[in-house]
Design a protein that fits this description.
mainly alpha
Length: about 160
């Protein structure tokens, strides 16, 4: 499922070389970001992007370009490690339930086990408190139930 996102900047044949270069760079970031979004978040990520289309399509493009095109695409950490860090951070925030659910799905997509995800969330009780960890565990429980229902429907 690929969501069509308008580009912030269009390249025209009359644009100066520097502007074309910037537009090409933006298109590279967008393309790289879309590939990363597909691989990491899959359907859950595309649902977020689609939900922004009618209110803030430029923001949807920013979400694809910066986190996925720039940060997730960097060398240095594998996707499992990046999702562990993201799940931990979102749990610690304590106020990012929808985003946490998307990244729990992403963690499963990139090879984290349910046990690993649950342990990461439990670890946050030490640093972010029990309420944040509890909220995280309930988010994980909902994601696991959704994944089980989807698997059962597919079987």
């Amino acid at each position: 499922m690929t969501q069509s996102i308008p580009s912030r900047s269009a390249t025209t044949s009359t644009a100066p070389t520097g502007a074309q270069s910037d537009a090409n760079h933006d298109q590279d970031r967008l393309a790289r970001g879309r590939r990363a979004l597909d691989r990491i978040d899959g359907e859950a990520g595309h649902n977020v992007i689609a939900a922004l289309a009618d209110i803030a399509p430029d923001f949807a493009t920013y979400v694809i370009e910066f986190p996925f095109g720039d940060i997730y695409s960097r060398p240095g950490l594998d996707l499992r490690s990046r999702e562990i860090a993201t799940i931990a951070a979102l749990t610690a925030l304590g106020n990012a339930g929808p985003q946490l659910k998307v990244h729990i799905h992403a963690g499963l997509n990139v090879g984290l086990s349910r046990e690993e995800i649950t342990e990461v969330i439990m670890q946050m009780a030490v640093y972010a408190g029990f309420p944040s960890a509890l909220n995280g565990l309930f988010a994980a429980k909902a994601v696991y139930a959704e994944a089980d229902a989807k698997a059962a429907a597919a079987a």
